[in-house]
């Protein structure tokens, strides 16, 4: 029986040895910090919920969709970030995630309506979260 060749971008990274000497704790601490920052940024929009409702003259439900879209995009693009990291390496993928985060946050400063916020924070900044999280998981 012949084993089919799997393209590199779809196959997992297999390491010959497990790192020793406390490296696992460093990865665990780094992952904790990434999670705190990732979800911290998403959840801080709740602090500004009333201000955003007043600014855009929208309901609580319409403003809350910003966070919901961002969390959905975050979860939906995580496998894509994993495949891109296997294909191109972690560094360029995380740099692209940082660029998307900056683009989404800077563009959100110039928006005029809640629909634009859905795109800037919900979609653009949501994609960067999965890229950032994958960096720690792949080290």
From TrEMBL:
Q: List the Pfam families.
A: MFS_1
Q: Which PROSITE patterns match?
A: MFS (PS50850)
Source organism of the structure:
Ameca splendens
Q: Does the keyword Membrane apply?
A: yes
Q: Where are the transmembrane segments?
A: 22-42, 63-81, 93-114
Report the domain of life of the source organism: Eukaryota
What name appears for this protein in its UniProt entry? Major facilitator superfamily (MFS) profile domain-containing protein
Q: Where in the cell is it found?
A: Membrane
Whether Transmembrane helix counts among this entry's keywords is yes
Primary localization class, coarse: membrane
Q: Which UniProt keywords apply?
A: Membrane, Transmembrane, Transmembrane helix
Topology with respect to the bilayer: Multi-pass membrane protein
- Classification via InterPro entries: MFS, MFS_dom, MFS_trans_sf, Proton-linked_MCT
- Per UniProt, residues of the Major facilitator superfamily (MFS) profile domain are 23-139
């Amino acid at each position: 029986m012949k084993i089919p060749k799997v393209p590199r971008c779809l196959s997992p990274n297999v390491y010959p040895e497990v790192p020793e000497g406390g490296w696992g704790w460093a990865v665990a601490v780094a992952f904790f910090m990434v999670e705190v920052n990732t979800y911290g940024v998403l959840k801080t929009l709740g602090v500004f919920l009333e201000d955003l409702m007043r600014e855009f003259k929208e309901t609580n439900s319409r403003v809350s969709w910003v966070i919901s879209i961002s969390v959905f995009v975050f979860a939906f693009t995580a496998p894509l970030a994993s495949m891109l990291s296997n294909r191109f390496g972690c560094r360029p993928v995380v740099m692209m995630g940082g660029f998307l985060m900056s683009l989404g946050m800077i563009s959100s400063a110039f928006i005029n309506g809640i629909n634009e916020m859905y795109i800037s924070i919900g979609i653009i900044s949501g994609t960067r979260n999965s890229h950032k999280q994958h960096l720690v998981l792949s080290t």
